[in-house]
């Protein structure tokens, strides 16, 4: 159904020229396309159900959609959510309905960039998918859980495509070389660097191959020469969407797991992708409290000091302060006891309601308050031995229940000393009773 974007005589991009003509020729994605994979099973049965291909650019989403429909015997209609509205969608539905009624042939509607469709347009597809007017094949680079309506997700399987690995990209280069009838003018080291530049994107890699093949004959390019001829691909990173949160999660968990090298790596990934360093410092501050806490109270001081230094100095020297803060938090002893203590306190406060405080710890600025017993019997801790009175500060009802301690420091780092202090005060409090 879809007209070709190119006339037969017009020059075409290498990625379009070398687009596989059969599923067997697709590089990568064996977990989906093998006979045991979900798409492989659909092909064996020649019966498609709606599915969404989710993966990074240049891994074969459009190619797989076309070939699956063709090899299963489905009419193929291609749309793009970037330029398609409800009117275009209704036209495609009418075409699929007429084809089914006239010949019984099923139709697959492929929608590229499916996440760009608004909720009303997504909802408009549901009846036609539900009654089998067409099978939906969607393609998206964004997490469908965040970008697609739940009703659509319940009617279509989400199939994840993998980023192409080094071996897959090497096969892509070999196909380009067979097409041109000559090898790429690169040394082995530069060839590996070219694969790294592609960052898992076969379409981008073929564009690089096409550019290199157009160079005048000369000695093979080395790694440094290649870098001067070809610009490196910008890393895949969306500061406002899923990749942003994924990398932040990896960074925080590396800090918590005391893997300083991994923490530095994930921070570098974010910086390379253009992330605001303040975002990384905010996560560091959270980790310094949530995961280090009182095991090393200096962790928070280090992070905030490094953050302030960064704001005063800026890049590139500011990276030194960020690295120091990362190294400190990642290698510090870990304790979430403070975090858990507040959780327990919140739970206790919810369960016990608005209990009155003990009167002896209430101030009595007026005569009436004194007559009511406010502040009576209060012992000023600094007047006591070891600056510890051992008085009760809980509401009477809670104290009578002898609750378990909310803050339970670990035997790690500075909390080991805190644990000893709490045990000492607890013993004195009990002896005073």
Automatic annotation (TrEMBL):
Which keywords does UniProt give here? ATP-binding, DNA replication, Nucleotide-binding
One family from Pfam that matches here is AAA
Q: Which Gene3D superfamilies match?
A: 1.20.272.10, DNA polymerase III clamp loader subunits, C-terminal domain (1.10.3710.10), P-loop containing nucleotide triphosphate hydrolases (3.40.50.300)
* Nucleotide-binding is among the record's keywords: yes
Instruction: Recall the GO molecular function terms of this protein's record.
Output: ATP binding; ATP hydrolysis activity; DNA binding; enzyme activator activity; single-stranded DNA helicase activity
The source's superkingdom equals: Bacteria
User: AAA+ ATPase domain: from which residue to which, for each copy?
Assistant: 47-164
What's any GO biological process attached to this entry?
Answer: DNA synthesis involved in DNA repair
Q: What InterPro entries does this protein's entry cite?
A: AAA+_ATPase, AAA_assoc_2, AAA_ATPase_RarA/MGS1/WRNIP1, ATPase_AAA_core, DNA_pol3_clamp-load_cplx_C, MgsA_C, P-loop_NTPase
| Family named by the database record | Belongs to the AAA ATPase family. RarA/MGS1/WRNIP1 subfamily.
Question: What is known about what this protein does?
Answer: DNA-dependent ATPase that plays important roles in cellular responses to stalled DNA replication processes.
PANTHER family named among the record's database cross-references: ATPASE WRNIP1, WERNER HELICASE-INTERACTING PROTEIN 1 FAMILY MEMBER
Record protein name field: Replication-associated recombination protein A
